[in-house]
Design a protein that fits this description.
By secondary structure, the protein is an alpha+beta fold. Helices cover about 50% and strands about 20% of the residues. The strands form three sheets. It has a five-stranded antiparallel β-sheet with strand order 4-3-2-1-5. A three-stranded antiparallel β-sheet has the order 7-9-8, with helices on one face.
Length: about 270
């Protein structure tokens, strides 16, 4: 590369710096101001929406949309300052967006499903649900997935498109335990039912404002089965079942109420000759 070429490149670089340098600095300053204004707008919007008791995912979504719109406005101002023609740029972005949309159908499906969940509110954070073959306590709802905390302390991440359109069982924040205990046929049923009720009343995990189901459910082969269905909070559901079973066995033993073993009566008939 000779001296004339170097001089030409230097002159060209200086001319470009003189012509576009100030505009570039102004554009960077505009984008920086846009980021600051976007964050400020998001904080104001978030504090204002808290007064309306909106769900956290809804607030987060609206805050992000507001920030993106503010930043987009300042970005357009920065591009105009640089002299960029926006119409051809927007047309190119539209064509590229169509191609990206085809390649990201799964992600877009999750996003649409997430918006459906956020605005229709089939469940809320803190509720216990069963959906798509899994269950757990709702920890977080985002645009793309819903996170459940499982009773074994693991996390279940469910894509939102697997939730919308499926049968959803929402337990809310309470669950009903289903226990079946059998007593002998010669048992005083009133005494047995009263004993079961006392056990439930003495358990601190059982919710006292919701009436438990205590009733004779099945006349089985070897026992009379009593259905015991108390209500507990979601967090107490697991421990309460074991505590109630243990307390029932101990209470029945104290009051001489027998829990029979399965029995079969076999008769052997000998035929005459």
């Amino acid at each position: 590369m000779n001296d004339e070429t170097l001089d030409y490149l230097k002159r060209t670089g200086i001319d470009l710096a003189v012509e576009f340098g100030p505009k570039l600095l102004v554009a960077i300053a505009i984008i920086f101001v846009g980021v600051v204004v976007g964050r400020w707008t998001g904080r104001i919007l978030d504090s204002a929406m808290r007064k309306f008791n909106l769900e956290p995912p809804v607030r987060l979504l609206l805050v992000r949309i507001a920030r993106i719109m503010v930043l987009g406005l300042f970005l357009i101002m920065a591009l105009q300052n640089l002299g960029v023609q926006l119409l051809p740029l927007l047309a190119g972005i539209g064509v590229a967006g169509a191609g990206i949309a085809l390649a990201m159908q799964g992600i877009l499906g999750n996003m649409v499903a997430g918006l459906t969940i956020i605005f229709t509110k089939p469940f809320r954070i803190g509720e216990y649900i069963s959906i798509a073959g899994v269950e757990g306590n709702v920890e977080n709802i985002s645009l793309f997935s819903t996170i459940l905390s499982h009773p074994d302390r693991s996390k279940v991440v469910v894509p939102n498109r697997k939730i919308v359109g499926e049968i959803l069982h929402n337990y809310g924040k309470v669950r009903q335990i289903n226990i079946v205990v059998g007593v002998a046929y010669d048992t005083d049923l009133n005494k047995a039912l009263s004993t079961v009720n006392d056990v439930l009343q003495n358990n601190p995990r059982v919710l006292k404002d919701l009436t438990p189901v205590i009733a004779v459910s099945v006349l089985a082969d070897s026992s009379i089965n009593i259905a015991v269905k108390p209500w507990t909070s979601v967090t107490d559901f697991g421990p309460a079942g074991g505590e109630i079973n243990k307390a029932l066995v101990e209470a029945f033993r104290t009051k001489n109420i027998m829990i029979p073993f399965p029995q079969r009566e076999i008769r052997i008939l000998s035929g005459g000759n």
